[in-house]
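Support reply, case 0932

Customer input (verbatim):
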Amino acid sequence: MPTYYTSCAQLLALAPLATAPLAHGSVVMPTSEHCLVGIKGTVRRNYDGHIIHANVDTDVMVGEEPPYGDTAKPEELYSIIEHFCNCRRRLELFGRDNNIRPGWLTLGNELSSSNHQPAAWAANFTGSFSCLQEEGDEELTLPNHLLGTTPLIESLRPKSPTQLREEAERRQQRELKRRDDEGRAAWASEAAAAAAMGITLEPYVPLTIEDMPKIPAVFHEQHPFNIS
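Our regenerated output:
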């Protein structure tokens, strides 16, 4: 059966001229390269951060003018792909020796040699592992073909207003539980001391979300250019 992809973005590669500017003052080549980004299935940026890093790079690549007839892809393109796609499944078709890159499977009939290790490659796609998304949160269990995350990565990751609100709500719930546990423990200690003196305290009243500081009503997009 055919495999269908949904186009979700387009990357643009420009190259500055190695010689003097053109007559009309342009300092870049009059042609550009375009890279279409396609997604198979459903990927939601608000909830699938373990698969993709949305808005982590710009959509325009600027590099040196390649030699005439050169077919090598811009080096920046590989970095954008590796930053955007949080997994180990990286495949390049019709590759040449200059395309071989760590972490990628390169296929092509113009390759002069192979360093492919099938067992090591297959091990990347079996089993699962645990990783921590936020300090104090529950660990995530992810399939081994994904790279996982850390609290530091999550603190720097570009986020939508929906993601920022959900993070704030999870932090609020963790803080509520911490304060309630402390209050309950303090009450139990006081109740035990009072009981020794024949005094009965009023039952403990659990904290509610209304007792916590309010989270902001509006969240704004977080990306590398507005993180304070």
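We compared this against your earlier run and they match. Two observations from our side: The helical segments are 75-84, 118-123, 151-156, 161-196. Residues 161-201 form one domain. Please reopen the case if you see a mismatch on your end.
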